[in-house]
Design a protein that fits this description.
single chain; alpha/beta; Udp N-acetylglucosamine O-acyltransferase, Domain 2
């Protein structure tokens, strides 16, 4: 249902069962999938592509221009997958010509009120961003990660899968998969055991990650030696191999 007080551009493509609330605006070249709900007073800017069964609450800004000083109106895009919950006052920007030109959000994510996602960021699936968490440009967030309220992530940082940040964490370097971090600037606080169990990781994998964490952070080994220990364990435990690959590929460095 399209509220008669909403404005929907003629070029927008809306799927079956889409709801657009009062005073919302859907700009040109927007695609919205089946059964997605756009509540009142939300604007969906041009070149935004939204999947099915999403719920975007009131007063959100979806797909606005990138906050990039060199932006001159180039065609850039925002992709949102399926079954996402995007709460009030969230701001999601399109990509920039300095990056990939695309900001992408996967499936089944929960973005609480006042979350900001800047240009060229990439989010996976089943991620929770608590109130007022903010991502700078070119940030990557892995599947199942959780960012506490008011967490801030520096541009080009990566947050690994099933990582966790405490409230008010400032991330200036990469946070490896499965690791909890907190503070200003962020420091590691162990493996996200509760989150891993909640997501069905078996006890052997959790124990292997705890051992890997000790190699990485508690053994006194330098990073090269710690990585060698992780890669050795990774042959038997895929989760440790994932952790090792992330650390090895980091260009900003990891929290230490």
């Amino acid at each position: 249902m399209i509220d008669q007080r909403a404005i929907v551009d003629a070029t927008a493509v809306l799927g079956s069962g889409v709801t657009v609330g009062a005073f919302s605006i859907i700009e040109p070249h927007v695609t919205i999938g089946d059964n997605t709900r756009i509540d009142g007073h939300t604007i969906v800017r041009r070149n935004s592509r939204i999947g099915e069964d999403n719920h975007i609450h009131s007063f959100c800004s979806i797909g606005d221009d990138p906050q990039f000083s060199g932006y001159q109106g180039e065609e850039t895009f925002l992709d949102i997958g399926h079954r996402n919950q995007i709460r009030e006052f969230c701001t999601l920007n399109r990509g920039s010509p300095a990056g990939t030109g695309l900001t992408s959000i996967g499936n089944d994510n929960f973005l609480m009120a006042y979350v900001h996602i800047a240009h060229d960021s990439r989010l996976g699936n089943n991620i929770t961003l608590a109130n007022a968490a903010s991502l700078a440009g070119h940030v990557e967030i892995g599947d199942g990660a959780t960012l506490g309220g008011f967490s801030l992530v520096h541009q080009f940082c990566r947050i690994g899968q099933h990582a966790f940040t405490g409230i008010g964490t400032v991330c200036l370097k990469d946070i490896p998969p499965f690791v909890m971090a907190a503070g200003h600037s962020a420091v590691p606080y162990g493996i996200n055991i509760r989150g891993l169990r909640r997501h069905g990781f078996d006890g052997e994998s959790v124990t292997a990650l705890q051992r890997a964490y000790r190699h990485l952070y508690r053994s006194g080994l330098d990073l090269k030696a710690a990585l060698a220990a992780l890669e050795s364990d990774g042959a038997a435990f895929p989760v440790v191999a994932t952790l090792a690959a992330f650390v090895k590929s980091s260009t900003r460095g990891i929290v230490r």
